[in-house]
Every structure is written in structure tokens, then in C-alpha cells.
Design a protein that fits this description.
Strand content: 5-15%
Oligomer: single chain
Bound molecules: pyridoxal-5'-phosphate
Largest sheet: 7 strands, mixed
Shape: globular
Number of strands: 12
Length: 393
């Protein structure tokens, strides 16, 4: 069916437009501006081996395809594969490149679930990782072994915000013909575009900023490499980790405001970070947009538009006990796992998101027991500051 609106799929160069229009057109049958939810398990064949592109919803679903086309469009990439969760995306990524006796290089500060997947599951199958301080690209180079089959970095890292230089590490990966994936969950394509910086794969927990409303869990792998995309697709179908039609539909709506949200998250976060930096009870604060941030220069170079996202972390005088007091006293900020939504969320990595990491390792990589992670939401920043101020008293 010809449709004049199909033209808009020829992506605009502006992310704000692609957030809204990539991958969808008004419904060809009714004109409905939002696509229908294809809530179906299976699809009728016309004849043996003749179908309309869909056979079974573990393999693919029209709504999931629309979300994939949108996410690929936003990233200006060849394709995207969407998963039921971010961890399903990470699992598929690792299973695609690694088998028995293979080696993975992973940046040392990563989402706790990624560490758990490697150390408590994949290790059993003979897959081992070196967790490397990738803020120094030379350390990545030194960690490469004959059997290294994948490099996975997260930047900014969850929860300390440590940065890794994507261009430099991608160059090292290319020289050694090792694929490199970047977990871009904290910034999204509005602020950082790893594929343009030389990475092969972008990994997302769409649960966070891409959905943005705490409505769904989900994940995505995005790439310009058709063989990699085919393998991710095959492995997703094989293990059965596809996104559900309803969640895909919700994410397709949430992502429309991504660019707008990322800018406002960043503007709120710099206000909150500046407040915390000047508060006498705060001993340390990490936000890539602050001049005091140890990798401020790299943040300026790698992050786009002068924005640095909505995530920050800080420590208060008095360590763990005082930190717990603050987290128990906030009322506007919600004490919860997760991040990247319109609601401000406050998290204690040591007992929540990063609990799977060995306490001594946690200390070594800067996740102290008193560290507080804040996902600055889209409430008025003065309300967020007032709430933190009363909790710090
Ligand atoms: C949350 C998160 C994940 C895991 O995603 P889920 O959707 O919770 O499975 C992976 N990486 C980062 C950086 C995250 O914050």
C-alpha cells in the first residue's frame, strides 16, 4: 500500500524528529495515528511457506518491529533487536560472541546484574572475564588475550559515573579485530552515539531513559553489522527473550519525548549537583558536568550538546549510617532501584543494584557503602533540592 506518510521514515537529521516518527506511519487500514497493538501469539499463513513476514510472536511481532525500526532510526543504525529486559539483551550479546574457554574484557564498574551474569552463570560454562579499569585505554589493550572475543564497556559507569573513552577503546578493539559493545543506558543517543565513535554494538536497558516513565522493562542491541544483527535475532528466538507486544507499544510512546527529557534531566542534574557540591554535609559528589569531575575534559569531548544526563552520585559525612538516614528521610525522591524515569529515584548501590558484587571489589572500584546514587527526574529542580536539603539536616 502506498502511503505518503511513509516518506517521513527517511529519517530527519534531527533526533527530536526521529524520536517521534522513525519506524511508524499512521495505520494503513484506519489512519489511527498510534499503531495498533498486535496482541497475538501466531499468524495465519497464506499457503505453505507463504506468510506476511510474521510466523510466531517469539520470533517477531509487528509492534516490536516498529520499536526496533524506531530505535535503529534514532541511532541512525542498520538495525535493532529488542528484548524483554536489558539483562536479556546483555545475555544474548555475551552468548553470541562467547563460548567455552573464551575470554571477555568488561569495564570494572558496570551494572551489578552484568557482573552476576558473568560470575555466577557464564563462568559455569567456561566463559571468563577480566574486569578492567577501562578509564585507561592501555589497560584494555594489556588485558587482551588470544581468546578474547568481546569487549564490553559501560560509560558513564553505573553507579560511579566513571567514563571510558569510546573512540580510543574502539580503535584498540579494531586493531585486534575484537567486537566492542557499549552500554549506553545512562546517556542515550541524545547525548552519546557510540556507533559513530567506532563501537560495533550499542546496548540498552530501555527500562531506563528510553521508556522514561517506569512503565516497562526492556532491552535492545543496535548495530550496523548485518551478521551481528542476524545472530542476535537468531539467539533471541532460540532462547525466547523477545519484548512483549504491549511493552513494545508503551516504549514506542515513551521514547517520543526522549530528546526533550534528556535535555531537561541534564539541566536539573547540574542544578542538583551544584547544590550538593556546596552543601557542607556532602563530602564527595560525582557528576560529569561539574568542573570538579575527575574526567571533566573527556565528558566535554565525548558527550554531545553540553549535556551530561540525569545521573549523579555522592557521599555524605558520617559514611553508611548517615547515608541511610538521608535515604530514609527523602519524601519527593523515591527510594527505589532503577533510574532514568520522570520521577527522581534515590538508590543505595551497596545494598541494592550492586549487591551482587563482592564487598572488597566494590570498595576497590569506588562503590563505597555510603555512596548514594541519584537519578534526577523531571520535577522542578527546586523541589528536588528542597527535599534533599531537609533530608541532609
Ligand atoms: C538497568 C541496567 C541494566 C539491566 O537492564 P534491565 O532492564 O534491568 O534488565 C543494564 N545496564 C545498565 C547500565 C543498567 O542501568
Amino acid at each position: 500500500m502506498t502511503n505518503r506518510y511513509a516518506k517521513k521514515n527517511l529519517a530527519s537529521s534531527f533526533i527530536a524528529t526521529r524520536n517521534i516518527h522513525s519506524g511508524t506511519i499512521p495505520d494503513p487500514y484506519t489512519g489511527a495515528i498510534l499503531p495498533p497493538i498486535y496482541q497475538t501469539a501466531t499468524y495465519a499463513l497464506d499457503e505453505i511457506e507463504q506468510h506476511k513476514g510474521y510466523t510466531y510472536s517469539r520470533v517477531s511481532n509487528p509492534g516490536v518491529t516498529m520499536l526496533e525500526n524506531r530505535l535503529a532510526g534514532i541511532e541512525d543504525a542498520l538495525g535493532a533487536i529488542c528484548f524483554a529486559t536489558g539483562m536479556a539483551a546483555t545475555t544474548t550479546l555475551l552468548l553470541t560472541f562467547l563460548s567455552k574457554d573464551d575470554h571477555l574484557i568488561c569495564s570494572d564498574v558496570v551494572y551489578g546484574g552484568t557482573v552476576r551474569l558473568i560470575e555466577q552463570l557464564l563462568n559455569k560454562y567456561g566463559i571468563h572475564a577480566s574486569f578492567v579499569d577501562a578509564s585507561d585505554p592501555n589497560k584494555v589493550k594489556q588485558a587482551i588475550k588470544k581468546n578474547t572475543k568481546l569487549i564490553l564497556i559501560e560509560t558513564p559507569a553505573n553507579p560511579t559515573l566513571k567514563l571510558n573513552n569510546i573512540s580510543k577503546i574502539s580503535k584498540i578493539a579494531q586493531e585486534h579485530k575484537i567486537p566492542i559493545a557499549v552500554d549506553n543506558t545512562f546517556l542515550t543517543a541524545s547525548i552519546q552515539q557510540p556507533l559513530r565513535l567506532g563501537a560495533d554494538i550499542v546496548l540498552y536497558s530501555t527500562t531506563k531513559y528510553i521508556d522514561g516513565h517506569n512503565a516497562t522493562v526492556g532491552g535492545a542491541l543496535i548495530s550496523n553489522n548485518s551478521k551481528m544483527l542476524e545472530d542476535f535475532d537468531f539467539n533471541r528466538k532460540t532462547v525466547g527473550s523477545i519484548q512483549s507486544p504491549f511493552n513494545a507499544w508503551l516504549i514506542l510512546q515513551g521514547v517520543k519525548t526522549l530528546d526533550l527529557r534528556m535535555k531537561q534531566h541534564s539541566e536539573n542534574a547540574i542544578q542538583v549537583a551544584s547544590f550538593l557540591e556546596n552543601h557542607k554535609k556532602v563530602s564527595q559528589i560525582f557528576y560529569p558536568g561539574l568542573k570538579s569531575f575527575p574526567q571533566y575534559d573527556l565528558a566535554q569531548e565525548q558527550h554531545m550538546g553540553g549535556y551530561h544526563g540525569g545521573m549523579l552520585c555522592f557521599e555524605v559525612n558520617g559514611g553508611m549510617d548517615k547515608a541511610i538516614e538521608v535515604m530514609n528521610k527523602v519524601t519527593l525522591c523515591t527510594l527505589a532501584e532503577s533510574l532514568g524515569s520522570v520521577e527522581t529515584l534515590i538508590t543505595h548501590p551497596a545494598t541494592m543494584t550492586h549487591k551482587p558484587i563482592e564487598p572488597s571489589v566494590r570498595q576497590k572500584i569506588g562503590i563505597s557503602d555510603g555512596l548514594i546514587r541519584l537519578s534526577v527526574g523531571l520535577e522542578h529542580y527546586k523541589d528536588i533540592i528542597n527535599d534533599l536539603n531537609q533530608a541532609l539536616k
